[in-house]
UniProtKB/TrEMBL annotation:
Protein name in the entry: IS3 family transposase
Biological source species: Paenibacillus larvae
A Pfam entry, by short name: HTH_21
Organism ancestry: Bacteria, Bacillati, Bacillota, Bacilli, Bacillales
Residues covered by the HTH-like domain: 27-83
């Protein structure tokens, strides 16, 4: 396998026995803290709020680092849309007619003649 990868045997075995660097250990800790903070916020926090929450916990890291790690982990905040009223009931206009659930024809109530739609009368 060493010949296939064109590395020496001693170099390969030295690489397998190598310990994790301090930078990599810190990076893994940061990833865990960022994930925990992000999911504790129900996925609503973006990188600025995650950074601020970490800062309040006493974890010193730059905001750009938090943003970069969140991007690499694929963590994006959910956006909650503001409620928008779809009905304007603040007017003095007359209400429309009543809805007929069935059509009365020849003295009998016959349903199903309206094609599944409500029929309005004035």
């Amino acid at each position: 396998m060493c010949a296939l990868l064109s590395v020496s045997k001693s170099g390969y075995y030295e690489w397998t026995k190598r310990k994790e660097s301090e930078r990599l250990k810190r990076r893994k800790k940061l990833e865990r803290w960022i994930r925990r903070t992000f999911f504790d916020s129900r996925q609503l926090y973006g990188s600025p709020k995650v950074w601020y929450a970490l800062k309040k916990q006493g974890i010193h890291v730059s905001q750009k680092t938090v943003a970069r790690i969140m991007k690499e982990l694929g963590l994006r905040s959910r956006t909650v849309k503001k409620y928008k009223a779809t009905t304007n009931s603040k007017h003095n206009l007359a209400r429309s007619g009543k809805c007929l659930e069935s059509i009365v024809c020849c003295g009998k109530a016959q349903s199903g003649l309206d094609g599944g739609h409500h029929v309005y009368s004035d």
